[in-house]
Amino acid sequence: MIATEKRVFTQEEIKALNKKYKNLNIHERIAELYNDFDQSEVMLTSSFAATSAFLLHLFSNIHKQQKVYFIDTGFHFPETLDYKKRLTKLYGLNVSSISAIKEEYEFTVQDETYKKNPEFCCSINKVKPLDIIKKKFNVWVSGLMEWQSDHRATLDIFEMRGEILKFYPLLDVSKQQRDAFIEEHQLPFHPLVAKGYNSIGCKHCTVPGEDRSGRWNNSPKTECGLHL
Fold first, then answer.
1. Is 131 in a helix, a strand, or coil?
2. Sheet harboring 164-167: ordered strands across?
3. What is the mean pLDDT of each run of 10 residues along the chain (228 residues)?
4. What are the beta bridge partners of residue 140?
5. For residue 36, is it left (φ>0), alpha (ψ between -120 and 50) or beta?
6. E-strand spans in 12-156?
7. How many CA atoms lie within 13 A of 60 on its CB side?
8. Which residues are the active-site residues?
């Protein structure tokens, strides 16, 4: 079931949500989400990248029915697609893949847009496909953490981005806390992490590096545009 009515959130409502959720732990935040919102209003996305198992493990334990959207850019590492299959089976996830219009994707392949204009390539293969479906939802859940980039350090647990309310239940989790959780629950890393990739996107635009330094290497670009 997909939400058909868009909810309008006032600044006061968003401020109240942030105050309420700030003092909850990550498990409580995800559980409380479904007290404040119907499942049909919620959109959860995952890139099935370096440590995606963290958020997906939580949802599989707290609200397994939640659909997970994966943006298949057509440029993923084979290891990413294998990792997606592994986590889907391991956690019994309900995963739905979305992708760009065939002709537009093929243009970026032939044009090698990722080399000349990575911003435009991301717009076609990531941002636009998600824009089409996110109009149907009121809340978008993402696993962003504030230590990952300067931009992410400015975010709140809830905030409006365009016409959708963003929810970052892991936002204030430190790198050390994340790694401890992964170790405690023996969560599987993306196979490329062992090769020095700590943030993993499309194969043409990702090299080994600490945190997000390997993304769009030698470029001032730090975000694909989904979360801006």
1. helix
2. 94-98, 67-71, 42-45, 139-141, 164-167, 158-161
3. 72 97 96 97 92 93 96 95 96 96 96 91 93 93 83 86 93 90 92 87 81 52 48
4. 43, 166
5. alpha
6. 42-45, 67-71, 94-98, 139-141
7. 17
8. 224
